[in-house]
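At this stage, I put together a protein sequence along with its fold in token form, as given directly below:
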Amino acid sequence: MLAEILEDPAVQAEFNAFSDHDRIAYIAHAKWVASAHRYQVPPPLEMDYTVWMMLAGRGAGKTRSAAEALWWWAWTNPESRCLVLAPTSNDIKFTCFEGQSGLLACIPQELVVDYNKQDHQIKLSNGSIIRGISGDSYERLRGPQFHFAWCDELAAFQYLGAGEAWDMMMMGLRLGDKPRVIVTTTPRPKDLIIDLVGREGDDVVIDRASTYENEANLASTFRKQLESYKGSKLYEQEVMGQLVDLEDGKVVSRSMFKMYPHDRPFPKFEYIVQSYDSAYTDKTYNDPTAMTTWGVFKPTDGPMSVLLLDCWAEHLTFPKLKPKVLDEWRVSYGEGREAKRPDLILVEAKASGLSLVQELQAMHLPVRAWNPGNADKMTRLQITASIFATGRVWLPESSVHKGYVKDWAEGFLSQICAFPDAAHDDYVDSTTQAMRLLKDMGFLDINPEPLYDDDDDYAYARKERVNPYAV
């Protein structure tokens, strides 16, 4: 195709007038456009839009599409400043910059003057700079300004609320005549994603694709694996690229949780348990290690309940997991004389959890190994479902969005309400073992033994008293 275009004498004359680097850039870009799917090519910059969003399934070529578009915009706009925004620093480095479909794989090497791995920055020979900033460090977006930006896996960002990653980026997108944003994401029903979809036809252009549209570039074994997910909502979302509600009709729903007001001090906790679901390895493609901290308290107008005090999920090797567990155990919850440290560290007895239990026992810490027996994950959740259904579980309310949970708890809430269609189930395991323990201890007993509040019933039920000394 390129050869045919260059046969035109006028085009050939113009092409020969280019600099060496321009010729290299145009050839590379022409090869990409000739081989790309229709949905992988962005609308022209001359069009009136702000966001080009790709809602597509896994393996549909989102990363390659964005990388090719961003470097081309940077090259055709010399001295431009471009941003790559991804959920974490590792996502920027190993996916967006150094990945097989990342920027360095797409940009011709002759055009790259410098690549600073530490600062996540690529400098091109035309003076343009592409800089990476992670979404979990969104405060670093204060100050820098850009012509173009690429947000990768936007729906997976931890900080998407008001004044966080997306807003900070948009406030810095103020250079040039028509700043543009590329959004590549597997669709998830997050508020921001729903808002962008609602703006389609206004300032947002959306291209949609399923995994199958790019199956020629995927391993045959991967294509076979997709078939096992057919019929599930996870398949519709992750493979077909459809915006679906994974939480609809699940065992636990958002309406079951109560919100603990953000402006109310912590209650007096009767008992605090930190529950760990440890991973088999620290590899990023496996489930991470997850921790949830639960405080048992007595609301003024209800039975004993639990409040989620903290949660996190990380890929940690055992040498890094142990000190983190110790740090978490030293944290106190509450104020003044009411402050309380965890009473128990609960660890599922599998994988690195076995070693963790032994190490903590040797240090004389209050640790207990948890063995779920033969019950599968769904059964474990169903056993404790009544605790959620009766409104005994409270979550911390956001100080920014009234009626919504704090941002750090959103990942927990999304996962447990989407189970078993969620991508991971680490929070589910951590939570169910904690709830089962507290239930067995009597803190969250749903069906206590009946008390005889009615005098007549009590009189009828009790045995007649006899005086043994009566004649």
